[in-house]
Design brief:
- The chain has helices at residues 4-9, 14-48, 50-58.
- The chain is mainly alpha-helical.
- Helix 2 packs across helix 3 (50-58).
- The relative contact order is 0.06.
């Protein structure tokens, strides 16, 4: 993975290498999180249907909470 000779040749580079690896791990975790969120959104669209997902975003009227649907 790492060339140990690099650390012995340039010991001043060690903090930069460690920072680079750390930030790559952070970027990997951020990418995994973004993909998980997008998968959840797309899964909701597929499960509920695209028209239902679009209708719920376009509707400005709150849902009816009345026990009888005729009073809405």
């Amino acid at each position: 993975m790492f060339e140990k000779r690099l650390f012995s040749l340039v010991p001043q580079a060690t903090p930069y290498i460690v920072a680079s690896v750390l930030f790559k791990w952070i970027a990997l975790m951020a990418n995994i999180t973004v993909m998980w969120v997008l998968a959840r959104i797309l899964g909701g669209i597929v499960t509920d249907g695209l028209s239902a997902a679009l209708a719920s975003t376009r509707s400005h009227k709150p849902p009816c909470r009345s026990p009888s649907p005729s009073s809405c």
